[in-house]
Structures are given as structure tokens and as C-alpha cells.
Specification:
Distance between the termini: 69 Å
Radius of gyration: 22 Å
Largest sheet: 8 strands, parallel
CATH superfamily of the largest domain: Homocysteine-binding-like domain
Oligomer: single chain
Number of strands: 10
CATH architecture of the largest domain: Alpha-Beta Barrel
Number of domains: 3
Strand content: 5-15%
Shape: globular
Helix content: 40-55%
Amino acid sequence: MDLLLGDHLRSLLEAHAPPAFMLNEFCGWYIGKLNEDANPAAASRKTNGLELINSGGTCMNKRGLLDRLASGTVICAEGYLFELERRGYLQAGAYVPEVVLDFPEQVENLHRDFLRAGSDVIEAFTYYAHREKLRLIGRESDLERMNRQALAIAKKVAAEGDALVAGNICNTNIYEPNNKDSERQVRAMFEEQVGWAVDAGVDFIVAETIAWSGEAEIALDVIKQTKLPSVVTLALHRHGLMRDGAKPDEAAKRIEQRGADVVGLNCIRGIKTMMPFIEQIRKAVSIHVAALPVPYRTTTSEPTFESLTEKDAECAHCIPDGRSFPVALDPFTCNRFEIADFGREALALDIRYLGVCCGAGPHHIRALAEALGRKPAASRFSADMSKHYAYGNDKRLTQANREFAKEL
């Protein structure tokens, strides 16, 4: 390998060789060692004298990300920030996932809700669990503990089903183009989080919600050193360009050329204002494409969920600063049928890595899964109006109530 691991990431890998990983990963490593003479490529990959677990080589023979994408779609539920804020366990504004340490059972429950709804991926809740964000709230000393806890929770829930575990890094908010010191700090932040993810034995790593091309490229460079599959999703703000002025399809092409396995867009934009760019990216690259919009009705005049404004004057007066983002977006929320339409539209374009970002609830993920022809566990409780007392058509319902339906 020409690329050298950062000092922090290398030390973590050396300190936590495969036998220190959890049971499934250890079994995959051990079986690979037994078969090494017969098939040197089996069960593991090597780089710089270090051996990394191939995520597919577990005792359960779990299929990896790329195998799954080669044969169909992969659903990745996101949206943990907004959903846990709505439930009263996370503060809007700083959006630091303190809930991982303060109320871990709530993170576990939400992971499980998304798993039951059809998510193929349990993404560790380490979005904004980076050094810069924790410094802002005075909890920098909790950085490593928060990341390791989030990864452990994700692995626990993923083991309850046939789900992959994804490590997660994101926008640092300190990146400055052509600033070597900034680039060094960003790289160091990514390396420590990726190091903890590798130590936990994740199946692949996501770099998400990144609006600077240069920052996305640094994130990818760090991920690639692990030899794990990489997903890079970019963020487009109001003007539909990366913050350095690059067009999204051009930025995605550069990410492809640097070796990403999946590239696309997530967050910021709703379905209608994201999908035209997704189609451009699909035409520009040959690798798999990801689309994870926010579930809000963005428009050409208000293309991002930050730019949405309340149109009802009777409601607008009570919103602080007149800004609907982030906690007065309820009137703009997409229903589950709109999410289902998104899934079908994306699949028709051969977009295979799909999800819903900030604002998503389990019902959105279930609707997406069902639109893709699946029947997850939560489909047991999908709507069935046949037995509704007035709108139903079950013969056991009273005729008087059925006739009263027009008065409701």
C-alpha cells in the first residue's frame, strides 16, 4: 500500500488485532487463518503488515455491503438527530449526540425501531460526536467514550437481525480550503473516529453531510486506509453547488476517481430538490449511488430544509426569528406515500443505496422498504382500513357507521 495510516489509526489497529474484536469477527478471522494456505485471499485483507477483517467473513456468513448492492438495494436509516430531539433526549442547535452516554437505551430503541422497519444498516450514532462539537459543549473528555458506546450499541442491535454496522464520520465545520492547518486538524479528527470504528469491527464506513469537496476527499482518504467499503454522501445547500463551487456531479466523479465504493447525496434537500442532482450523479459515475433526502417538502424557491418558511401568517408569528428550521418544520413533513414514491423513483434510476435523513421516523423507513417490495417485521402493523368502523368494508361492521362515513 502506498498510503500510510495516520499515527492514531495505526496505533488503534495494532493495539486491537483481530482476536480482540467481538465474537463473529474473531470467528471470521480464525476460519480465515485455518484456510490461509489453501486460499490466501480468504477471510481477511492485509495492509502494511496489519490484518483487517473482511466484513463478510463472519461465523454467520453475513453478506457485505458491496455484495448486497450488487444484487439489489440497501436501506440505511438515518435521522437520529431529529427523532431523538423530538423524543426529548437531544438538544436542537448544537445537535451533539449526548444521548449516547446519557440515555443509551433510547439510542438502542431507535436503532431497533429502524431495524424492524426495514433498515439493512445500523449506523452508529456518531454524527457530530467529533472533537470540535464536544469541545463546544464542554465534553471533549467524553469523546472516545461516546464513540465507543455508540458503536457498541449499534453492533448489539445489528446482531438481532441480518444488518450491517456502519461507522460514521461527518462535516467537521472547521474545514477551510487551502489551509494546511485546517486540513491537518480535519484529518486527525477523522482518523480518531475511523480508528474507533475499525476497532469495533464495523462492516463499512460512511462519510456524510459534507459540503466541501476537499473535506470529503480527506474523509475518503482516511476510510480507504482501513480497506473497508466506503460511502461518501455530499450535502448541497441553497445554490446547488459544493461550497467550493464544484458541481455535485463533478465532485462525485472526483470521489469515484479517488476510490469510493458509493457516492451520492444526503440531508439538506427534500426529495423534489435532491433527485435532479441524484440523476446527474448517476450519469456521471459508474459506482453505486446513494440518495438519502430529508422528509420535507422543499421547493425550487426553498430548496433546503433550512430555507423553508411558514406560509400561514397565523402560525408564523409564533415562530422565533420566523425560521421554521429546525423545530417548526412539522407542516412541511412528507407522508409515507411520498417516501414510497421516492423509493420507486430512485430504484428506476438504479439508485441502490437508499434512506431518509433528518426528520425520518420508522414509518418512513417502513414505507421505503415496502415500496421496494419488502415486508419487514413492522409491516405487520401497516395500515389496514378494512376494519375501520366507518371507512372499512368488513361485512361485520355496522351499516349505519359505514353510511355515516360521509359525515366525518
